[in-house]
Amino acid sequence: MPGLATVIRALGPIDVKSVGRDSMLRWLIGMPVVFALAFRWGIPGLDSWLGERYGFDLAPYYPLLMSFLVLMVPTLMGSVVGFLLLDERDDHTFSAIQVTPLTVEGYLAYRIAVPMVVSLPVMVASIAIADLVTMEPGLALAAATQATPVAPLYALFVASFASNKVQGFALLKGAGILTWPPLIAWFVSSPWQVAFGVDPLYWPVKLFWMLEAGDPGAWLYFLAGLTYQSLMVAMLIRRFKTVISR
After folding, report:
1. Alpha helices of 176-217 — where are they, by DSSP H?
2. How many CB atoms lie within 10 A of CB 244?
3. Radius of gyration of the chain (CA)
4. Any alpha helices (H) in 55-200, and if so which ranges?
5. How far is CA 162 from CA 12, 91, 96, 119, 221, in A?
6. What is the pTM of this model?
7. Per-residue pLDDT reduced to its tens digit, 175-231
C-alpha cells in the first residue's frame, strides 16, 4: 500500500482543484481568518461599549469567546472534507479504489489526516491573530492539537449520515447544537462540569480554558480528550465503511 505522503502528493492537488471550483468550500476554508480578524477588532470595541454603557466587563469572558474560535476551525475544515467525501460517494470513488494499490483504509487515513494537519496551524494562527488571550506558543499548539480530532469527527459524520450536500448542510446546522453544551459548561462549577464530557467538543474547550489559566491538571484532560475523541472517530469510520459497502 502506498505511504501516506505518497497519497497526499497524488490526491492533494486534486482536492485543491475540487475546493477551488466550489465557492461554498472556498468560503468555509476562509472563514477562520475572517472570524479571527473580527474577534481582534470587534471584541475589544464591544468590551469598551459595554463598559461605558452598562458597566459590564467582557474581558473575563475572553477565554470563553476564544474557545469558540478554536472549535470553529476544525469544524469548518472537517465540513469541507465531509462534502468532498459525499461527492466521492456519488462518483463511486470507493469502488474504483478497490482496483488500485490504495486501499479504502489508506484513503480514509488520508481523509482523516489532512483536515487535522491543516487545522493545526490555522488554529494556532487564529489564536495569535485574534490576540484576546495571552498564551505561549507551546500551549496554543497543545490546545490546537486537542481540537484537531473534531475535524474528522465532522467529516465522517456528514459523510456517514447525509446522502447529498443539501442533507449534509442541514446536518451540519443541526450538529451546531453540539457547540453549546461545552460553552454552557463555562458557567457550571467543577466537578459537575465533567458531565458535559459526553460531548466530544467539550474536551478541547475545557483544555483551552485550563491552559490559559495555567492549570497543572490540563494534561490529564489532554490525554482523556484525545482518547475519547479517537474512540468516536473509530466508531464513525466503522459506520462510514458500512455505508459505502451498500
Report:
1. 180-184, 202-213
2. 18
3. 19
4. 62-90, 93-97, 104-130, 137-147, 150-161, 165-175, 180-184
5. 24, 15, 21, 23, 32
6. 0.85
7. 878 888 888 888 887 777 888 989 999 999 999 999 998 888 899 999 999 999 999
